[in-house]
Design goal:
By secondary structure, this protein is α+β, with helices and mostly antiparallel strands. The protein folds into 2 domains: 107 residues, Probable inorganic polyphosphate/atp-NAD kinase, domain 1 (Rossmann fold, 3-Layer(aba) Sandwich), CATH 3.40.50.10330; 133 residues, Tumour Suppressor Smad4 (Sandwich). Helix content is 17%, strand content 38%. It is built from 5 helices and 17 strands. It has a 6-stranded antiparallel sheet with strand order 6-5-16-13-8-9, with no helix packed on it. A 6-stranded antiparallel sheet has the order 12-11-10-7-14-15, with no helix packed on it. Helix 1 links the parallel strand 1 and strand 2. The longest helix is centred in the first third of the chain and has 14 residues. The relative contact order is 0.17.
């Protein structure tokens, strides 16, 4: 993009009427291009739409600027139709590195998926799951009785991880949250903080009697026997935020929320 030229913008929207109407108006106003040709992608909706947009553009490395037309909007900026090029020029960049899940099911088939928020394991029946947890090849929890467990990124630490009483991680902490979901035994284990380059391996015990599914964000694999989670160092995602929308500050405030 030449310094004197206007940025090429692509717009994506949630399925709600308000988001679709905004997309149509903005595309006309800014002479929109397809995402593959854009300098910036503008996502219109909530955090769910932002996650979808990030997943659809994993390999493009195109910066994504979200505007909130949804509910929570933790990863979104305030919606304003006017002045988008100036906002994008002043926007602060935040880099995210997702997780890579390699899951093996009971038939021996391997499935790979990328997670921006978390990789989670959840029991698939009324039976409590039994999961062995190893970190960097060292067995840490040989038999975790639970509803499940997850590994969350800093960006995802305020999502499902927080609902499971996991820790909130600042974006610059270079940490991952290993969080159990309704742990029954060992009852006092509340999880662990791991270096971002840690390799976490979950082994499902008694998988026929106690089936477990694994999910990388919205991609779910049924009846897994082993799940390995590592940092996807070959993928870098860029989010853009207005200077007044300080994501690190919002994450910090969440830790003091009543």
């Amino acid at each position: 993009m030449a310094a004197s030229s206007a940025p090429r913008l692509a717009f994506v929207a949630a399925s709600t009427p308000i988001a679709r109407a905004a997309k149509a108006a903005l595309e006309k106003r800014y002479n929109a291009v397809p995402p593959a040709e854009a300098d910036f992608i503008v996502a219109l909706g909530g955090d769910g739409l932002m996650l979808q947009t990030l997943h659809r553009n994993l390999r493009r490395r195109t910066p994504i600027f979200g505007m909130n037309l949804g509910t929570v909007g933790f990863l979104m900026n305030t919606y304003r139709a006017a002045g988008l090029p100036a906002r994008l020029k002043k926007a602060r960049r935040v880099s995210l590195t997702p997780l890579r899940m390699v899951a093996t099911n009971a038939r021996g088939h391997r499935h790979e998926a990328v997670a921006i928020n978390e990789v989670s394991l959840l029991r698939s029946s009324r039976q409590t799951a039994r999961i062995a947890v190893a970190v960097d090849g060292n067995m840490r929890i040989p038999d975790l009785y639970c509803d499940g467990a997850m590994v969350a990124t800093p960006a995802g630490s305020t999502a499902y991880n927080l609902s499971a009483h996991g820790p909130i991680l600042p974006l610059g902490a270079d940490l991952l949250a290993l969080t159990p979901i309704n742990a029954f035994r060992p009852r006092r284990w509340r999880g662990a903080l791991l270096p971002r380059d840690a390799a976490v391996e979950f082994s499902v015990l008694e998988h026929k009697k106690r089936p477990v599914a694994a999910a990388a964000d919205s991609v779910e694999i049924a009846n897994v026997v082993k799940v390995v989670v590592t940092e996807a160092t070959d993928i870098e995602l860029t989010l853009l935020f207005d200077p007044e929308h300080d994501l690190e500050e919002r994450i910090l405030k969440e830790q003091f929320a009543p």
